Amino acid sequence: MSKFAMFGKLTAVPGKREELGGMMLASSDTLSGMEGCIYYIIHEAEEEPDVLWVTELWESKEAHAASLQNEQVRELIGRCRPLIAEAGGIKVKPLGGKGF
Amino acid sequence: MSKFAMFGKLTAVPGKREELGGMMLASSDTLSGMEGCIYYIIHEAEEEPDVLWVTELWESKEAHAASLQNEQVRELIGRCRPLIAEAGGIKVKPLGGKGF
């Protein structure tokens, strides 16, 4: 089974990045118990004041898809949504490396 | 001490992405023994045929800087350089998350 990675770019509503980042950090506790999630790291972009980047690595595409069905994850996404102006990202295929 | 993250974007010389990725995967063995490196993952961009993205997380900026003085790392960078057309990336500050 191939591992699955995502680079998500979330542009917060102006001035709301810190609040959004805080909510997403709280979500990482939820994800800590989630099967198949190897890492999920939230970063602030240094050169774009409203942007967060979230890098995720999962055991499989299916494990990621299953997480989106989880009730706590859905509830979190619903709470974050009003703070997000735009969601995008970069499509990547992970090859390997340290911590893979 | 703050952790340090990098999103490096490497554009290979046309047609050389696979070769460059292979060299960098070999380097991850070198980095596996390297103090302070939490992860170092190599990805192919799905929508740009010559692009690799490398995400790195280090215990500190100093640990990352020290790795660049390592003889094996310098030798690897030297071998990769002819395959790289352009090096850039996104400056980020890691906040936390699972696997942090």
From TrEMBL, chains A, B:
Residues 4-92 form the ABM domain. GO terms for molecular function: monooxygenase activity. InterPro entries: ABM_dom, Dimeric_a/b-barrel. Gene3D superfamilies: 3.30.70.100. Keywords: Monooxygenase, Oxidoreductase. The keyword Oxidoreductase applies. Signal peptide: none annotated. It comes from the Bacteria. PROSITE patterns: ABM. Pfam families: ABM. The keyword Iron does not apply. This is Antibiotic biosynthesis monooxygenase. It comes from Cohnella ginsengisoli.
